[in-house]
């Protein structure tokens, strides 16, 4: 059996009677990369605060590598091997990335010693290796102030890693980053997970999909569900807690909507008309959804993350009837506007994956067209 790096049992944190964490139970194996998601106020930050010793639990236990953490100071816990990356980088802007990293590899020395004493060879290799890992080797000797926001985040991740923690806690690492930086941050975390256990808290669903193997959803201070990204995204309770409305939507319906959304995203743009169709399908299931259609749409865009390969979604359809529904809905969604090249090829791929008889496909296509959508042929 794999070793547990973190075991949390029946954890409750009360703030003046309000339970930010409520009988939360959680565990993860050594070497795991775990993503934690959940709506605002779910308790994600408090969860990290308890692990790092910033907040003491009202009830329950946290064990790290088998050791109880209760009663230990933040400093002690950090020394046991837990490193936390905050949202705002805490780096020395007037030092270079190399100097920043050297400081972390030399915790017992002060800033001046680091600057003026030659670094021993073994250490330099470590710093060099880290610079390469975080992709900053080409900017190693320029002041950190000149780095982009993303590069500063990577430097801080590198500084954490320099302290060789066994468990890395990372709170919203891609907030404010460009798409390209986001993607590279994902690659960095995946490569760090080869030699560390990592917990990432994140809002950006597309990013979660890029890095996630195992996802834990928090809601009202407890674990709502846990599983792969597919399992979690097909779980109607997850949509429900994000939207804050009751639903009777089934996992099968959710899957259809996600296939349609993926088609809509095919050209990199989830247009308003396309959102309307999906929203209309979804809002039929949500009693109060019409109360705040605009919010619902934004949430929906994130929840139906855009880069879900059809190859992953389509095989989850169970029956021919569901495959036909997926085709109809997708055609309706992309047919809401002029169908462009990207959508046409996504549609072609969908048809191939669905593997429906050719007659069925043309029957459904003309039926959808007849319903008055203005799709081009
Ligand atoms: P998340 O990070 O998932 O958005 P938080 O852990 O920050 O959630 O907060 C969970 C709940 O606990 C929120 O309702 C928040 O208002 C409350 N909370 C967090 N910290 C405190 C505090 N120090 N005092 C009182 N309430 C708090
Ligand atoms: Mg938070």
UniProtKB/TrEMBL annotation:
It comes from the Bacteria. One of its GO terms (molecular function) is ATP hydrolysis activity. GO terms for cellular component: plasma membrane. The keyword ATP-binding applies. Keywords: ATP-binding, Nucleotide-binding, Transport. Residues 6-245 form the ABC transporter domain. The keyword Cell cycle does not apply. This is Urea ABC transporter ATP-binding protein UrtD. It comes from Leptothoe spongobia TAU-MAC 1115. The gene is urtD.
């Amino acid at each position: 059996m794999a070793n547990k790096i973190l075991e949390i049992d029946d954890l409750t944190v009360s703030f003046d009677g309000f339970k930010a964490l409520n009988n939360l139970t959680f565990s993860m194996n050594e070497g795991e990369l775990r993503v934690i998601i959940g709506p605002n106020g779910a308790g994600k930050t408090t969860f990290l605060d308890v692990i790092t010793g910033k907040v003491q639990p009202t009830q329950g236990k946290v064990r790290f590598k088998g050791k109880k953490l209760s009663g230990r100071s933040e400093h002690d816990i950090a020394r046991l091997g837990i490193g936390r990356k905050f949202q705002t980088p805490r780096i020395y802007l007037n030092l270079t990335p190399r100097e920043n990293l050297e400081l972390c590899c030399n915790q017992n020395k002060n800033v001046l010693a680091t600057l003026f004493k030659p670094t021993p060879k073994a250490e330099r290799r470590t710093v060099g290796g880290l610079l390469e890992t975080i992709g900053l080797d080409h900017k190693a000797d320029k002041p950190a102030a000149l780095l982009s926001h993303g590069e500063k985040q990577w430097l801080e991740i590198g500084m954490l890693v320099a302290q060789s923690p066994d468990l890395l806690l990372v709170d919203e690492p891609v907030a404010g980053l460009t798409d390209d930086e986001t993607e590279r941050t994902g690659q960095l975390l995946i490569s760090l997970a080869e030699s560390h256990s990592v917990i990432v808290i994140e809002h950006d669903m597309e990013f979660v999909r890029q890095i996630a193997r195992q996802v834990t959803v928090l809601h009202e201070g407890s674990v709502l569900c846990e599983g792969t990204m597919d399992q979690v995204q097909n779980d109607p309770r997850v949509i429900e807690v994000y939207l804050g409305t009751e639903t009777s939507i089934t996992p099968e319906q959710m899957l259809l909507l996600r296939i349609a959304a993926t088609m809509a995203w095919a050209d990199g743009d989830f247009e308003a008309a396309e959102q309307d169709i999906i929203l209309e399908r979804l809002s039929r299931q949500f009693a109060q959804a019409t109360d705040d259609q605009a919010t619902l749409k934004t949430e929906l865009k994130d929840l139906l993350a855009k880069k879900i390969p059809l190859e992953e979604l389509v095989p989850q359809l169970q029956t021919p009837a569901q495959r036909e529904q997926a085709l109809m809905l997708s055609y309706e969604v992309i047919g809401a506007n002029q169908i462009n090249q990207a959508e046409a090829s996504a549609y072609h791929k969908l048809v191939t994956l669905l593997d429906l008889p050719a007659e069925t496909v043309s029957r459904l296509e003309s039926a959808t067209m007849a319903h008055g959508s203005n799709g081009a042929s």
